[in-house]
Amino acid sequence: MSHRPHLNIAVVDDDESLCRSLGRLLRASGMQPVSYGSAESFLADSQHAHFDCLVLDIELGGMSGLELARLLNEQGSVVPFLFITAHDDEASRAMAMGLGARAWFRKNDPGADVLDAILRAAGNAAS
Questions:
Q1: 32-53: per-residue pLDDT in tens?
Q2: The pTM is what?
Q3: With contact defined as beta carbons under 8 Å apart, do 115 and 25 qualify?
Q4: Which of 4, 33, 40, 5 is CA-nearest to residue 19?
């Protein structure tokens, strides 16, 4: 595998098993994942000021991933984000892409595809 820049990735998902498996995949690829069980815990974290890419779930316990993306856009964030969700419906997908999502995945999609999308999104942000 080629050398990749050190990338900090936030995973905002209330599915602990997805956070664990995606975290392992990202660490094995040389990235530094930080998992959050809710949008609110992501927003409250002042220790991790910079992320290269966000991986968001649609359905979270409080604020949804779509609401989080909208809020970050309103705050002027330029951090690329993508969605990975069990709730795959056309309306949510269209809303996510309208908010600027770089990609959309179902939770059972191949991890390699998600990893490639994260690298593309973070790489585009760095250039």
A1: 999 999 999 999 998 877 899 9
A2: 0.92
A3: yes
A4: 33
DSSP code string of 42-64: HHH--S----SEEEE-S--SSS-
Q: Are 55 and 118 in contact (CB under 8 A)?
A: yes
For 13-111, list the strands marked E by DSSP: 32-36, 53-56, 81-85, 104-106
Q: Which three-class secondary structure state does DSSP give residue 125?
A: helix
Positive/negative CA dihedral, 113, 117, 122, 127? positive
Element (H, E) at 11: strand 8-12
CB count in 10 Å sphere of residue 56: 26
Domain 8-126 = CATH 1.10.10.10: no
